[in-house]
Amino acid sequence: MRFHVMTLFPDMVSGGLRTSITGRAIENHIFELNIVNIRDYSKDKHKHVDDYPYGGGAGMVMQPGPVYDCYQDIVKNMDKKPRVIYMTPQGKVFSQSIAEELSKEEELIFLCGHYEGIDERVLEEIVTDELSIGDYVLTGGELPAMVMIDSISRLIPGVLNNDDSAEYESFQDGLLEYPQYTRPETFMDKKVPAVLLSGHHGNIAKWRREESLKRTFLRRPELLGTAELTDSDKKILEK
Ligand code: ADE
């Protein structure tokens, strides 16, 4: 998988993603990250990439030319046109199932806007998907692109090590995660639940499943509508 990020702030994206688990995966060539500075495609002697909005109003709008030339440069040697995802609060809200779908692509381009947005004509020309990370407005598309790349990349085989993947499995069914504990056994007079010290794998798995169900019921009951539930899960929820 190769992720391409079109941005005016390459250092922000690079710093965020070349760190920790995603950074290790990039170093190990498990996926590629190609960050391209849209400003490098400005034909202006001052490297401007934005201008005043036609019709007036606050802020600046990113011009279509540099965005289009940047895109053309990224796709020039590709046989097939990749999906181009524009980060915008007007898009469909990103989710785990969208992450799963996108993790099957060979190449993905993320287009990050700034200021008041990007000239509509170039969006019409190149964008295939518009996605949002939630109903709030950020100063630019870089954080949303990083959020999406992080969650898509952890679904690529080899990005998580075996210890991490076990954790991933338990998320797969659409329930919230059970609580976790580590040493010490007692902290501020609170003991770790005894079952976790018992060494009984069957009882531990049962306890964790119940905790996941309880948490989901209390905190995000709407998730139970789409979660994968067994008959024994349904009995627990009836209690
Ligand atoms: N750009 C600004 N706000 C955004 C959001 N919430 N999601 C995606 N892109 C954005």
Automatic annotation (TrEMBL):
It catalyses: guanosine(37) in tRNA + S-adenosyl-L-methionine = N(1)-methylguanosine(37) in tRNA + S-adenosyl-L-homocysteine + H(+). S-adenosyl-L-methionine binds at residues 113, 133-138. Its main location: cytoplasm. Pfam families: tRNA_m1G_MT (PF01746). The gene is trmD. InterPro entries: Alpha/beta_knot_MTases, tRNA_m1G_MeTrfase_C_sf, tRNA_m1G_MeTrfase_TrmD, tRNA_m1G_MTases_N, tRNA_MeTrfase_TRMD/TRM10. Belongs to the RNA methyltransferase TrmD family. It comes from the Bacteria. Homodimer. One of its GO terms (biological process) is tRNA N1-guanine methylation. It is found in: Cytoplasm. This is tRNA (guanine-N(1)-)-methyltransferase. Keywords: Cytoplasm, Methyltransferase, S-adenosyl-L-methionine, Transferase, tRNA processing. Specifically methylates guanosine-37 in various tRNAs. NCBIfam families: PRK00026.1, trmD. GO terms for cellular component: cytosol. Its EC number is 2.1.1.228. One of its GO terms (molecular function) is tRNA (guanine(37)-N1)-methyltransferase activity. Residues 1-224 form the tRNA methyltransferase TRMD/TRM10-type domain. PANTHER family: TRNA (GUANINE-N(1)-)-METHYLTRANSFERASE.
